[in-house]
Amino acid sequence: MLKVLVTGGGGQLAQCIKSVAGLYPKLKFTYKTSSELDITNKDEVESTFNFQAFDYCINCAAYTNVDKAESEKELAYKINVLGPKYLAETCSKHQVTLIHVSTDFVFDGNASKPYKETDSTNPIGVYGKTKLEGEQQIINTIKNHFIIRTSWLYSEFGNNFLKTMLRLADQRDELGVVGDQIGSPTYAIDLAVVIVELIESKNNAYGVYHYSNKGVISWYDFAKEIFRLNQSNIQLNKIGTKDYPTPAKRPKYSVLDTSKISQILDKKTLNWKDSLVVAISKL
Ligand SMILES: NC(=O)C1=CN([C@@H]2O[C@H](COP(=O)(O)OP(=O)(O)OC[C@H]3O[C@@H](n4cnc5c(N)ncnc54)[C@H](OP(=O)(O)O)[C@@H]3O)[C@@H](O)[C@H]2O)C=CC1
Ligand SMILES: Cc1cn([C@H]2C[C@H](O)[C@@H](COP(=O)(O)OP(=O)(O)O[C@H]3O[C@@H](C)C(=O)[C@@H](O)[C@H]3O)O2)c(=O)[nH]c1=O
C-alpha cells in the first residue's frame, strides 16, 4: 500500500483527487487542509512527516488568485515559493516523492506553437513568477520530484471559470468574455486521474511535465460552449483583453504540448469538449 499525503486538502484539485481516490484501493490518501497543515510553517511541515510515514506528497496548496497576487506579493511568495521549498526539503529527508502542480502562467504567451517543458519561461505576473520560483526550489532541492504544469483548471469543486460563468448567466442578460487569450481548459478530475495513475505506475522518470485537455480555444469559446451545454440564454459578446482590464497581465497564448506525459503514461489526453460535458453533468 502506497501512502500519499495531499496538501491544500480543501482546494479544487485536492477535492478532485478525493473524488477519484476510491478507484485506487492500493493507495492510501491523507488530506490536510490549510488549517491542518500550513505549508509555509516549516515546523508544521516537519512534524507532519515525522508523525506519519508517506511515500508520496501531492502539493495542491497554492496561492491562486492571479489578480490579487499583484497586491499581495509577499503572501503569494510565501505560499508558492517557501511552501514548496519546505515540502521539498522535508520530502527529500524522508525519501518521499514530491508531486507539485504548476501553471501555464510561467510562460509569457508570446509563442505561436504549444509550449514544451524545455521552452524558456518568462512569467509576466506575480502569480506566474512565484509559481516558477516554486518549481526552481523543488528542482534544486529534491531529485524525486514531478512538476506538472497545467492550465485553465475547472471542475464541479471550488472556484473556477465554469462556475463563474454559470453564476453570471443567472445574474445577467449580457456578458463580455475575452476572445484573444488562447489556451486549453483542463477538467481537474482528468488531472487528478493522471496524478494518481502516475503514482500507481511507480514511474521514476522525474522532472517537469505538461498536462492539459486537448484543444486550443479562447476563454470566449469556452464560455460559449458552457452556455450552449447549459442552455443559458445570456447574450455572450466576444471582447478584447483591452476591454476587460485586470490588475494582472495574462499570457495571450499558453497552450501546453502534452506529448511527454502522454508517452510516460501511455495515455491520450482527453478532449476539452468531452470533459466539459462530464463536468456540467456533475453540477
Ligand atoms: N485553478 C487553475 O485554473 C489552475 C491551477 N493551477 C495550479 O494547480 C494547483 C491546484 O489549484 P486549485 O486546486 O485550482 O487551487 P485552489 O485555490 O482551489 O486550492 C488551493 C488550496 O491551497 C490552500 N492553501 C493556501 N495557502 C496554504 C498554505 N499556506 N498551506 C496549506 N494550504 C494552503 C487553500 O486553502 P484555503 O482556501 O484555506 O486558503 C486552497 O484550499 C495550484 O498549484 C495551482 O497553482 C495550475 C493551472 C490552472
Ligand atoms: C469573469 C470574466 C473573466 N474574463 C476573462 C478574464 C481572464 O482573462 C479570463 C479568465 O478569467 P479567470 O479570472 O476566471 O481566470 P484566471 O484566474 O486568469 O485563470 C488562471 O488561473 C490560474 C490559477 C492559472 O494557473 C491559469 O492556468 C488560469 O486558469 O477571462 C472575461 O473576459 N469576462 C468575465 O466576465
TrEMBL record:
Span of domain RmlD-like substrate binding: 3-281
Any Gene Ontology CC annotation: cytosol
EC number: 1.1.1.133
Top-rank taxon: Bacteria
Top EC class of this enzyme: oxidoreductase
GO MF entries: dTDP-4-dehydrorhamnose reductase activity
UniProt-listed InterPro entries: dTDP_dehydrorham_reduct, NAD(P)-bd_dom_sf, RmlD-like-bd
Residue stretches in coiled coil: none
Pfam families: RmlD_sub_bind (PF04321)
Keywords, ordered alphabetically: NADP, Oxidoreductase
Pathway where this protein functions: Carbohydrate biosynthesis; dTDP-L-rhamnose biosynthesis
Listed GO biological process terms: dTDP-rhamnose biosynthetic process
SUPFAM superfamilies on file: NAD(P)-binding Rossmann-fold domains
Record's catalysed reaction(s): dTDP-beta-L-rhamnose + NADP(+) = dTDP-4-dehydro-beta-L-rhamnose + NADPH + H(+)
Function statement: Catalyzes the reduction of dTDP-6-deoxy-L-lyxo-4-hexulose to yield dTDP-L-rhamnose.
Protein name listed in UniProt: dTDP-4-dehydrorhamnose reductase
Source species of the chain: Winogradskyella endarachnes
Gene expressing this chain: rfbD
